[in-house]
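Final report, results section. Input specification for complex C-07:
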Amino acid sequence: MDILNALVAFANFVLVPGLTYGSQLALGALGVSLVFAVLRFSNFAHGDTMAFGTVMAILFTWMLQSWGISAGPLPTALLALPLAIAATSVMVLGTDRLVYRFYRRQKAKPIILMIASIGVMFVMNGLVRMILGTREVQFADGERFLLAPAAFRTATGLAEPLGIRTSQAVTVVVAVICVAALFWFLNRTRTGKSMRAFSDNEDLALLSGINPDRVVMVTWIIAAALATIAGTLYGLDKNYRVFVYFGMLLPIFASAIVGGLGSPIGAIIGGFVIAFSEILVTNAWSKILGYLTPEGWLGEGLYQALSTDYKVAVSFVILIIVLLVKPNGIMGGK
Amino acid sequence: MRNLLLFAAVALLFVLTGVFQSWNLSLNILNLALLSAIMAIGVNIQWGWAGLFSAGIVGSVALGGLAVVLVSGKPVAGAWEAGTLQIFSALVFGAIAIALAVWMQKKLPKGTNRSLATIIFLLVAFFIYRAFLDPAVAAVEANDSAKAGHIGGLGLNSLWAWPVGALLAAGAAWVIGKVALGLREDYLAIATLGIGEIIIAMLRNEDWLARGVKNLIDLPRPWPVPYELELQGSPTFNEWINVLSASPVTASAIVVKLLYSALFILVLLVLLWLCDRALNSPWGRMTRAIRDNEIAAGAMGKNVKYRHLQIFVIGSAVVGLAGAMMTSLDGQLTPTSYMPLRFTFLIWVMVIVGGSGNNKGAILGGILIGWLYLAVEFLGPQLMGWLTSGLPAGQLKTQLAESAAHMRLLTLGLILLLVLRFAPKGLIPEK
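Structure output:
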């Protein structure tokens, strides 16, 4: 029995990655949820909006680096974020003007808007591929580790290392700041309140003199900002590739639905539920269990419920269970 | 009259491809376009007839491909002894366990106890299942792992695999439809997106099933289609070659492709006839009534959820059939080639461009967009080369030339958006 080492291994392989991935999913799901609440359709283009935002962040990072500007120990991409958000907002507002507004005015069925969002997804995906191609881009710079595994081992004298990468710490901190700012905005400002009113009851909001165009515009800008931040954080953590953002669509939707579509708190809870279940199910437990059981007791097995290739199955199964048991999600969305 | 002109225009595209590129390429594109048209019919059944949006078409296509491997693949010596039976019993055990869990949910009184009991039951069942499955899988994969390492097929004619592919896809659709139909319509889209990804992940990783990413090659051709070498050896063929004074290599390739085209066209026509019959029957009128107003149809005593399930299963079966036909054509199963953009969203574009709700429209859209998708491969670089021919060689030129390869997605997205906005009824609107 070696509880201390087991705990450290748990933190290293489950807790830290889970918190990071959960934050990224939560930010993504918040964007999907907000668009759903105000515009009332499932935005399939959100994954590729994240990719677009990340590409913008990468381009601005390279620009800043060529000017010799860096953020010291932190990744330069953080400085590039505001510029990338601005660029992505312009792009997203452009798609709204050219594509979605027409259907909104027509009061088209949500499913038509959803199909239109698939068209937007194609276009964005094509654009992103034209800019950076399909290669893998590593754009994280600054210090690699906040807590280096070797340093942790010498400091504590434990056999098991614990490493926290800068990108992981940055992800969690940025996510907390974003969520706090978003909730402050939604609950305390006039625009935020009008957004919530619009989402709760459109007709009543219109009668009270809320300007729908303004609400829609603000929603898109926030969604673009959240998508850019989530995409960039994911890219810093695991490098940028075009394909992964389409793959994130399902976990993000699952997070939003599990929490309750349209509910911001639900999106955050959903993000962490999905992230931790994915990691708990696909983690190889042999190392952690090895510390907790007598030697030679476990044998050769990996003690892994599902191989990591089936990550997507985990979010899917959770999604199905929630749909069957509580179709409106944990926080009771729409 | 207009429809005839549209089809003639599309036929002209293939003739032009044949004249300016090569007939071999043109027929190649035609075969894939015909398969896309069958898939488009399947999607049209779901979307055009009933308004069901599935984002997991690629899963049905892949299941069709899997059927070809299981039915017509060569049997692997020793695989049965190694543990095929045990794998299947483990799978059956898993299915029974899940069915029992569902039954428990239905029969037991509601409450925390029921949830707890189900979870514990499923956990125990999962461990038994893994204990059963894992050794058998390891044994099968170890059996002649360099060449086979999978359970092998029945070695039957590839034609038998087509209905089996349809059945496999229909089974998967039934399960997913049971869960996701009857909820909000976007939930079906998201759930099917998931099932599609899972099926692809399974094909990639379950080496015992179809060798995973090691790919399964050399699947036999369906019955009437000979191999090129056999043809070149046959005396009748050589007589014809002498009469036409053609090159035997090209001629044999073209004959093989023509035979495939004939088979596919036959299936397509049968399907079209069946679909038209179904649409004009009382059943077809009922499905349209349900699509146009679910509440009214429900009030008239129609079982909306059951009908949705029925149509969802039928549509998926048609797509599965096309998937099996495609693998028969390719003669190999490559799991990495099943991309959602190619097999889910592209088919969607076909249906919407062609005219959702109209079977002929779906076929036209399938063949037209199928041609466009594959033709962009050679047209894009040519166009870009022509556009940039005035530019000096340099970084900009190479960047532009590379980006031409990605034009496809952009073009398709634009076509989808433009058609959806300016011609939402498509090229051949529903009557």
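Chain A is about 75% helix and 0% strand. Residues 3-8+22-243 of chain A form one domain. This concludes the modelling results for the funded period.
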